[in-house]
């Protein structure tokens, strides 16, 4: 029984000697990120249920309202999608900057770019909602529109919270420095952001591409 | 829109009674009164005894997994009392001459709260609490992986339960049963706040449970003692892992269904409005996509408990460990493939029903494997019928009957005939009372010393078992019978005189169950009073087999002085066979434990107030609380000083102290296990070295 046997214990002794406030070795960071992965899996279930509900509603839920074919066009959603795809790429650069110990400036810079593209995405989405709304196509019109607003709206809420999270992280990077804690937070935001991108691909395909083609 | 939203004078519990005095409104007023007086009594008691400070510093702000587990179980106990009292009132209502003494609405509220409470605020906190106390000790961990998140889970569940309790005092709960199907629960047919109570209390506890699931899964994956491979893990940890995975995936559909229902009710959406392109059957679909895995969330931890209680009190190794593990995993996977059997009558094709019927019957196979495992563990064992063992044995008999009626109902043809009948009600009580409650009672009786350092009184424990067992059969066997005669569930009263004799027997059974619960309250009371003579400071009061019994009772805050190296499935049995009485320490090193914090409590309480605001359409309050929660989390995110250190010297001292206790405690033979001679360290003298 060697001393290493306790290394897997909670709050491993390898943390010893670190500054007390940063007593989280790489082990702990890995675990936190693993936990966050599991949370994301759970979140994906929510998205898939809304998508499944939408898939039913776009056929059977039109009622007296418009059909997806009448409602959607591909123009704006494509621009929107590009904005989000670019933001996921720039977040990748941001994470690489953190990994290869680039200056914090560069990490923050790319994060800002990411958030700007996220905001563009969100802006286009809200504009589209607004356009539908003034034409009278509100969620109260039909089961289909309810499902549409709920699904896209939930994704939008996720992006919004991602943007707020990113802004707060910029403040924390400035005030707390690039500690292990802040780094894992940035890593988790990254996972979150990329997941939203993947979900959006599904949404774009299901709602807009297949909707327009139907 | 007034500042108080939809809150009216009539919502205060006592007002309807004064407006229209009747037995029904009187009972409602009395129930509300009990809640208010009970809360006041607790406040007075805390103040008079000066317990506020200890309550705050040792319990409310704690991040210790054992204490969090205990609070969960206390919550469940309080809610269990309410749930059983409601059941007794409903049984009495049905034997009273029609139309009974309750209004139809009141009766509907009773069965809705009874179901909601029993599933979400009794069963769930019981199993989450037990997992919290025991699982880390079994796998050699010092705490849950995310102790702060654990506190948030706990207090969100408490908040949800508080909302259900509040519905007795302010306003009404819903009347659509614990499943709350629209369109009945839509805004047109249920315009009051009842459904919103259901939505938001389940939302709070549902989020808490999802977070618990993440916590349990990560703890098991990442925090096992060195050498403890997955296939060396105790069965309770295995069932916890499977339950955790079910929690992570299955709580979400409930949240999605209730968000949709809330949007329909308050934002004019049409998810479930048939005339506007909605599909109300999707609610049933989503609900049971949660609801069926939920059944296995409830039952798997109990299976884990039996897999430890039975070997311990049979003095034998568990029979067929590997098959039990695979049976558990198989049940967890299959649990996602059967949800349609809750609505065979919905109108889908016979093919679909056949597939789900077969899948449902398939679950009987791994479950049957388990029952054989337990029976063969007992076979030729030296059986000692402690309270825990009695509950386990009672479970096996009773659960098999429930399983058989379950396989009957899995046949869509029979399901069409028995749908929504009391036969179904008898079936699921037959699963959940032995399969959940008996398991948790066994677990609490068995592991109680780990948390508190003393055993529970055996005499009252056994009395409670017999009352529960007899009470169960008397209550639910008649319901099978009249269910087959055609009695539907959720009826406020029956006019067919043929049902009456059966209902009377059922009423007697409900009183016996109430007696069982009373015995348990007495059991705890007597045990606390006699705790000096029930103390087992040396630990291991039942010749236990798992790692948790290598610790002294009560277990210290840091759990293990050093994390042991695991080489077998029953490390403690192995150690005892080598003549050890204390696990050999590895090197002592400084360890870190989470510091207490009030943040978990505060965040959850703000969430609860916010949910109350949403229930009564005080949107401003909901928004305000949302912002407050955000600010609290933000403050916590700046707090990096969240750990305290326990030094190697302190751990060494603790080890020496425990060793001393163990060395000065005389060995106790199995015959004296339930006597006051048991101060821990019980041995089978015939086997002991």
Mind sketching the topology for me?
The complex is a heterodimer of chains A (214) and B (689).
Chain A lengths: L25 H35 L7 H4 L3 H25 L4 H31 L8 H34 L3 H34 L1
Helix pairs in contact in A: 1-5, 1-6, 3-4, 3-6, 4-5, 5-6
Chain B lengths: L14 H5 L3 H27 L2 H9 L4 H31 L8 H36 L7 H23 L24 H29 L12 H33 L13 H34 L6 H14 L15 H29 L8 H24 L1 H7 L3 H31 L5 H28 L14 H30 L1 H4 L36 H7 L13 E4 L4 H17 L3 H20 L4 E4 L1 H17 L3 E2 L12 E2 L6
Parallel strand pairs in B: 3-4
Antiparallel strand pairs in B: 1-2
Helix pairs in contact in B: 2-6, 4-5, 4-6, 4-16, 5-6, 5-7, 5-9, 5-14, 6-7, 6-19, 7-8, 7-19, 8-9, 8-10, 9-11, 9-12, 9-14, 10-11, 11-12, 12-14, 12-15, 14-15, 15-16, 19-20
What does this structure look like?
The complex is a heterodimer of chains A (about 210) and B (about 700). Chain A is mostly helical and about 210 residues long. Chain A is built from six helices and no strands. The longest helix of chain A is centred in the N-terminal third of the chain and has 35 residues, at about 25-60. Chain A is elongated. The relative contact order of chain A is 0.16. With about 700 residues, chain B is mainly α. Chain B has 21 helices and four strands. In chain B, helix 9 packs parallel to helix 11 (about 350-380). At the A-B interface, helix 1 and helix 5 of A face helix 7, helix 8, helix 9, strand 1 and helix 20 of B. Chain B: It is found in: Cell membrane. Chain B: It is a multi-pass membrane protein. Chain B: Pfam families: COX1 (PF00115).
